[in-house]
Batch of 3 targets.
Target 1
Amino acid sequence: MKHKPLPPVWLNRLLLITLAAAVIIGLWLGDWGVTLQNGLLLCLSCIGIG
Amino acid sequence: MQDRLLRLIFRLMPHRFAVQLVSWMVTNSLISRESTMGLFCPSLNCYACPAAAFSCPVGTLQHFVLGNRAPLYPLGFIGLVGAVIGRTSCGWFCPFGWLQELVFRLKVPKLRLPNRYNWTRYVILIGLVFVLPAVAKEPWFCKICPAGTLEAGIPMLLLNTDLQSLAGWMFVLKAGILGTLLAWMSTTRRPFCRWICPLGAMWSLFNPVSVLQIAVDRGACTACGMCREVCPVDISIFENPASGACIRCMACVKACPAGAIKPVLR
């Protein structure tokens, strides 16, 4: 059975760089604080209570 | 490098359940939430769980969407994990995936379902993680998430009796979804991962482009089907080694009698 060829390796490296940049920009824009605050707040409706 | 990776996988393979157990314990380790909740766990793990130490990437993603904030950090994290290891987290680190494998061990009649309808998880991803939270300003996937019911809803009600009066029809619905899934898990291999999980759906997209790949030697493969017999998501890896359904648990690597399946790094 012939397998479909994988996309080129450079595409993976480009993805890695782009996604790492997205994380860094997100953190620079304050996403860490938003994530932390969101994680510490207990959303009761999210778990079906209230 | 590749030989070393193969040796490591072979050494870890018999202990995958132990790795999943350790992963569950670390993600729910009661360690200081104030310092770690800004980090994501590489799996679906409800951060409303009283013991959760890390944030759930899907839960956070919805909160970014409903708050009209560009989800650069959560999407970047999910993408980075996917671009490096594809769906490996589903096979090795996800507590809910582990639960499904445990429940499937129950001695009940088994049901073999084809994977051809697994596009449903993309419908759930787009509808409940992006569109509904953006429109209704509520995290709709969390509202039906069975992992949340099991890890957070039920423990919270057991630990805090004051909350019990607040549990209404929504909780009954969630408990019903969890109960139905538990029954399904006992008969079918990893149904949540195959047809429902939005996190797995996102990582599926990265399987063909990730650094970690599975290679099948077409000359050595006899298509005996042993890989499908041991596969937790019921796929024949020799048909498509980069399949988005593969959770990279590497059970087929160990089981292949011809030694035709190998993990490789690109």
Target 2
Amino acid sequence: MARGAKLLTLGVLFAGLVGLPFFLTGYKLRFVTWLLMWVGLASTWNLFSGYTGYINFGPVAFFGVGAYVTAVLMVKAGVSFFPALLAAGVLAGIAALLLGVPTLRIRGAYFAIATLAFSEATRSLTLNLSGLTEGGKGLMLPIYNNAYFFYFVILGLTVAVVATVAFIQRTRFGITLVSIREDEVASQVLGVNTFLNKMAAFGLSGVFLALYGGIYAYWQTFIEPGEVFNVLYSVQMLVMTFLGGSGTLLGPIVGAVVLGAMTEYLWATFTYVYLIFVGVLIVATVLFLPDGVWGYCVQTQSRRRRRAQPAPVLE
Amino acid sequence: MAETLDFLLPHPEGDTQMLALKQLTKAFGGVRAIDNLTVSFEPHRVHGLIGPNGAGKTTLFNLTSGTLRPDNGEISFNGVPITWWNPWNIARLGIGRTFQTIRIFPKMTVLQNMMVPYGTDPSRSVELLEFVGLREFRDAPARELSYGQQKLLEFARALVTSPRFVLLDEPTAGVNPILVEKIMGHIRNLTRDGKTFIVIEHDMKVIMNLCERIVVLHNGEKIADGPPEMIKTNQQVIDAYFGD
């Protein structure tokens, strides 16, 4: 697509997203807000795991930490929302770096297990630090009943996340991250400080996840450890990204919208068996579209474009 | 890029070693891949590294480039001890390498592969791709190249940052004969410009033609070291290759 057409599409899309909430009410607005949050969460997961190939199985740890830091600061210390949210982002970033030092040295399934264990550990910790978090009773946040506010805050953050990924993709940092996924040792002997690059991406993803957690807590007004540290949230980020195509800018967006809309429809129609359909969908993706829906489109397109050129003679 | 010329100056101790391995040992389980090996390599020369399969040639490369840690011994580069350095710091010091089993980035395009090295230079990338005949494939994913072309891409990628010292692990395996000649010519030119190479190669014609000095490994030990004419007639080397 030409640059002008691209900008026009982006402009129309953005205007549409800004105008959308004024045509929606109640449940529908809540659903669109929820969907935008998942677009952002999947994109954030993709920012680290999709590009580096290090499968983070516990992203919900940072989401939960963000939710709790925001909630505790607001409830126990009377801090207002935005400063509390900022603190949550900073703290989660530091937590991600501390976790990264030991875990980013291990690869494959070991890294996945370590991050999963970390997210379960933070859930346990939150449950047991009851002086601060009220444990299993959960925390009630000040109620702010303004659906537009949450829609626009989440929209803003999601735009920021997607723009960040788009920017990284164009920089040397992005190329470095992909080289880590493709062959980390080769990348190292070419002078790439893979550890530092992984840390930077991991830390950044931790910050974004925590910001979503904090907004989510304020939006829901009530949080408890079992919910904001729900392992299924981690799985959903992963599934959405792979469904759309990991390591691509638009993949997680496509995946989040498709899976989000589909679960919503299936859940409303077949309340008791909808997970069967979701399962079939995931298995079908893995079998037939290993690069995801969007990944498949990108590949066919680039192959067609190269075929259109005069074929170079192979040796 | 400013190239330091300090390696051209005589070494304080009066000897001219650039890469020095001292009493190096690396064992895998009970097998000593490198066994108490002491060897050094001088600047601006092409060194051949040969030996039967399992002699420890690739292990020597892995230890030097920092992707493996030795059990014992020391490695120094221009007098700097690099034994425990990270691979990326060793690379930034000016040691480049290729791998025996190709390690390109398969899903990246050919040009993106050239953009990964630290301190890469876009115009030199294109120049090198032109040289190895891959320029027209620059936007193709690297995995779609043939085996020989992938080998060439790896060769070009290792040279894009102009390292002073290059370790080539079987650079000509699977490459067509005309291009092999071209690569050998390029290695000679770069050596004249002050670069240093160690080449692992099974093709004796290439080794004998290219190298001024050949080091022969057998069971992780050095069994011979000298100019090609000397190696050709060395009884120990012949025994190592053909059995006694």
Target 3
Amino acid sequence: MNLRAAMNLRAAPNFRAVWAIYRVEMARAFRTVLQSIISPVISTSLYFVVFGSAIGSRITEIDGISYGAFIVPGLMMLSLLTQSISNASFAIYFPKFVGSIYELLSAPVSYLEIIIAYVGGAATKSILLGLIILATAALFVPLRIEHPFWMVAFLVLTAVTFSLFGFIIGIWAKTFEQLQLVPLLIVTPLTFLGGSFYSIHMLPGIWKTITLFNPVVYLISGFRWSFYGKADVSVGVSLGMTLVFLAVCIAIVAWIFRTGYRLRN
Amino acid sequence: MPSILSISGVSKTYATGFTALKQVNLDIQRGEIFALLGPNGAGKTTLISIVCGIVNRSSGTVTVDGHDIGRDYRAARSLIGLVPQELTIDAFETVWATVNYSRGLFGKPANPAFVEKVLRDLSLWDKKDAKAITLSGGMKRRLMIAKALSHEPRILFLDEPTAGVDVELRQDMWAMVRRLREDGVTIILTTHYIEEAEAMADRVGVINRGEIILVEGKAELMRKLGRKQMTLELRAPLDSVPDGLSHYALELAPDGNQLTYTYDNQSDRPGVASLIRDLEAAGVQFRDLDTKNSSLEEIFVNLLRQEP
């Protein structure tokens, strides 16, 4: 099946299918509210206690921003990345694992609609979570958002991009171990080393250069700029890097759909 | 009768190099019950999976009511309901939610009255708020059928529908399949239970090693390939078959009390009437006789044995 047929651009879209999948995905989040929402909120609060209080007592300010407030965008991004990936990867992996994916594959629904539904569901959940973390953070530190439009834009763009990335992982993974491999061994370390808890200007020369190869740096920097107007790298570069990663994910998904990789073979 | 499903030159070779289907051609008539028989690994499930869009074909074309399953897959798939062999349900969804999800997935507007009817017909209405994980195996099987019927398909694939279910549920399913057929739904079932095909199917297809080796009306198949046996209970035991009866190739039971004559419609052997006359002439008397048609199972086994 070619890509045009796979997307079925000529036929009427199946909005009911998109809504049915999206609703099931959202229902799952509310059914597992402890795991989906409360647990990350507790983790974030603990970060505030450990990093905000313990380290914040030694580092009072970075770029004129109190340390507690400085780490808020990084904490949000940390949860946004990990939750977007885990939500989307689990959503598509679970039906593969139990076999119920037969129903999705045999339904009159295009790949584009499948993506919109699953990625939309995963991104919605992680955006909600990000906003909950923001509200939780507001209880600990004074916050300001200088560029609310760009804050929302980075939030949505990052959630969608990493949900798409999670979807790819969910299709690629053959085991639960593989499902956890990329988030645990790659994404989490990159996020911790991407300036969530510090400015990369604080690093010694060579490490600062090495850090610039970490794509998460650009996400966190751009997001932090939307809050405080201060960035480690240019906001245009941050936006560009996010869009490049989005484009790469779209290209991989298009290839998966064209070939039926690990779905229809 | 026009075909509702047309499979032409379909082959499937998996990435491992295993060829599951070789140039399969098959036409399914509208409104019939078609039984696809074959041993394990013959290609039954691969064929169904290709038609339903679960597995990509390597070559060939499939049309469903005139809609190509590649170019016009929305129209094609919306006509098909599939009950797979495995019980694959999201265990944490309720019966009501999962059946409505299936209906939505196929683009149908919500219709609580119809879903209720489907659940009542399958004796699942009392369980509508139960999570799938709490259902018994038989109920899960019914739930799979309810999901497949939720979007009012015109073709229903039942892949080993009664595998592992008890006799009562099997009878219920057979009754349900007949009701669906009366409503004009075309049924294609694969089964290991040959008596199931024998009891329900209008036509039978046999697939072996990825090739369709036979498609025939069930009655025609039984007539053509079926064999008959006549068993005579003798008044007095025989030591051996009398010489005058040797051309009938009769089998004498070890105790000498039974003679068995096997014949079929294709055979040039003499008929039953002449055997009885010759028995009388040879002075062999019998007190009872019994005739038996060979079952579809015997035909099936013989067909597979003839395969190289």
